[in-house]
Amino acid sequence: MPLNSAGFAQTVRGLPTAFWWLWITTLINRVGGFVSVFLMLYLTLDRGFTASTAGLVIALCGLGGTAGNLLGGVLTDRVGRRPVLMGAQLLNAATTLLLGFVEPKAAIVVVAFFACLTANASKPAMMAIVADIIPEQDRGRAFSLNFWAINIGFGVGATVAGLAAEWDYLVLFVAEAVATVICGVVVYWKVPETRPVALPAEEGTAAPARIGIFRVLADGRFVALLCTTAALCLLYQQASTTLPVTMARTGLTPAQFGLVIGVNGLLVVVLQIPVTRIVATANRSVLLALASLLSGWGFGLVVFAHTTWFYAVTVAVWTVGECVLAPVAVEMATRFAPDTARGRYLGLYSIATSSLPAMVGPALGGLLLDRLGADPFWLGCGLVGTVAAVAYVLLTRTPAGAPQAEPAPALSGSPVPD
């Protein structure tokens, strides 16, 4: 579907103003997200960490991200979306700035943990606001546009950060802290509170039970969605870990890998708007199955790749799958979540699709690549995509008697006053 002005206008029209302020904060956050991209280099080159120790620090940051998503999800439901989003942004700015100044290695580890915790605590609140203010039929479009902002921001931010890092790493920490403060200010001035208010129980009836984390984990169909999507996100982690190793073993250079992986960012920016128009109306079961097959066999095609252009083709295939999967899977997660438990549901979703794959994916991929060999490993990625496609088809079917997510308590129908 070609990208033109009429198509673009059709894609973006009709979404509320609050969504676009959130979209702007997402873009600013990703443009200013310098530190995570260069943290490994900063720790080893500037602070004297060994590569193995720095790797452990990065893994600990992943643990901090998991804790942040969990804590942010609970607070989003209990305290509200807006205070969690704004508070997490400001605390993240403070911890990021502090990380650029602390010198003792133990202090760097502790501050890095809390910087990642606060950075991830805002994610459930952000997704919950989108689900609160966007009608169900438009959520796929909204999350697709948000994914577009993330990738535009990351591409610009990584380029700028690379230039800044050659001058002084401290510039990265200061710039990210400033960008995060700006996001907090935008949230304060422009984003209303949207947490649904449960109506009081009628006289003689019990108050609605609170939906805690363990009750969310007892939602079997939602957990199946998490596991299936997490498996595909583990595949995406291989793009920056086992893929460059495989390319090097076939005699290709780091510069050639840079050209190949650059296809991912370029295609996301170019294709996301056309994909968004498709996502808005297409069958969810078909979309998720197609995204799984493209993702799995995009990596599976690496078996046949020996030249730079063929590796670029494999990246293009799984990138299309990623463009479809990212918005549709999170939209499905919001459908499972009762209104008053969206923070918890989306916090767990963010853990399964972001924090956990980042912690497990690189180590697991490297282990399997060494144990199985390249061809079985990459064919296994294709198998994962095939199994995920079948799982999504089964998951999105709703035959009579199928278990459903518990209905939310009666709501007032209006957000909390700002």
DSSP strand tally: 2
Widest sheet, order of strands: 1-2
Order of helices and strands: HHHHHHHHEHHHHHHHHE
Q: Which stretches of 5+ consecutive residues score pLDDT under 50?
A: 201-207, 399-418
Distance between the termini: 40 Å
Tell me what the structure shows:
- The protein has 418 residues and is mainly α.
- 77% of the residues lie in helices and 2% in strands.
- The protein has 16 helices and 2 strands.
- It has helices spanning 5-12, 17-31, 34-46, 51-78, 81-99, 105-133, 139-167, 169-190, 213-217, 220-237, 242-249, 254-279, 284-300, 308-336, 342-372, 374-396, and strands spanning 196-198, 411-415.
- The chain has a two-stranded antiparallel ribbon.
- The longest helix has 31 residues, at 342-372.
- The model is unreliable at 201-207 and 399-418 (pLDDT under 50).
What layout of secondary structure does this protein have?
Elements: H1 5-12, H2 17-31, H3 34-46, H4 51-78, H5 81-99, H6 105-133, H7 139-167, H8 169-190, E1 196-198, H9 213-217, H10 220-237, H11 242-249, H12 254-279, H13 284-300, H14 308-336, H15 342-372, H16 374-396, E2 411-415
